[in-house]
Design a protein that fits this description.
Elements: H1 14-30, E1 38-41, E2 48-50, H2 54-59, H3 66-74, H4 79-89, E3 98-100, H5 102-108, E4 115-120, H6 123-132, E5 139-143, H7 146-149, E6 161-165, H8 174-188, E7 193-200, H9 206-215, E8 220-226, E9 238-244, H10 250-264
Parallel strand pairs: 1-4, 1-6, 4-5, 6-7
Antiparallel strand pairs: 2-3, 7-9, 8-9
Helix pairs in contact: 1-4, 1-10, 8-9
Length: 268
């Protein structure tokens, strides 16, 4: 696990959009059934990101990500895009300054009877996270290494729910580690819905991750969104999601939303 990574440099980029569309669709689906559910975020970050910060403005990833997509979302009739924009608007009075991370988005969709735990390793990010989650009684913030802590939360007493695994993948071995962790998690909690995000990079290390999971023969869906042609890419050229025990209809909802965003995206 890397202590150097801070998501503020990348918050609101196209990979976040991909991941968060899936997250909203899945958590919303879980909330449509009466029984309560438990959600675990293994790499929670700081919860809310200031896109006017020096770090975010340095990379301009949010400007070229959610910043360019809000126009399309503003005129969209797509239910998922309307819901996504509403959650962003809830943090902003004028324009786009604050962007909700995965932890805050999931927390915003919880009902009073639901429960969530947010894990974060970076001590500075944990302090931000505590502020972002203040007042949300269903959310417990935990400081520590998810590799050591995740198994203590599964299976949850609710039996329903899911888990988002969202590492930085700065360390090469992370692909194998997280794939094997996901397999172990499904053994402990077979009915949970699992989300594992991964970057598409020219080195194509994500193929190792996918092969491990495919060989495990899990009930899963893989969804990849390429932002540019791999041959033209220097860094990340796309975003990948593995969904284990994917809820019915969610894939089509996410893909419909992405198709609409792609039709209105102007990279220039």
């Amino acid at each position: 696990m890397s202590l150097s990574y801070q998501h503020i440099y990348h918050a609101g980029n196209l990979a976040d959009v991909h991941k968060h569309l899936w997250l909203i669709a899945i958590v919303d689906y879980l909330g449509k059934k009466e029984k309560p559910f438990f959600w675990l975020d293994t790499h929670a970050g700081r919860g809310v990101y200031d896109l006017n910060s020096i770090e975010a403005r340095k990379t301009k990833e949010a400007i070229n990500g959610i910043g360019r997509l809000l126009g399309t979302m503003s005129v969209s009739n797509d239910p998922l895009l309307i819901q996504y924009k509403g959650l962003i608007d809830g943090l902003n009075e004028h324009g786009l300054q604050f962007y909700p991370g995965s932890c805050r988005l999931a927390a915003s969709l919880l009902r009073e009877s639901d429960r969530m735990c947010a894990l974060e390793l970076h001590p500075q990010e944990v302090e931000y996270l505590k502020v972002a989650m203040r007042g949300l009684k269903q959310v417990a913030v935990k400081h520590g290494d998810m590799l050591k802590l995740w198994s203590s939360f599964l299976p949850p007493k609710e039996r329903r729910g899911g888990m988002l695994i969202d590492p930085s993948f700065e360390i090469k071995t992370e692909y194998e580690i997280q794939a094997k962790l996901l397999i172990e998690a499904t053994k402990k909690w077979s009915t949970g819905v699992y989300m594992l995000w991964y970057p598409l990079l020219p080195q194509r290390r994500h193929e190792e991750l996918k092969n491990i999971l495919l060989n495990a023969q899990l009930n899963m869906q893989i969804d990849e969104w390429q932002f540019q042609h791999p041959a033209q890419a220097v860094g990340m050229y796309g975003s990948g999601m593995v969904i284990v025990n994917p809820p019915y209809t969610v894939y089509e909802k996410v893909r419909n939303a992405i198709r609409e965003l792609e039709s209105g995206y102007n990279p220039n």
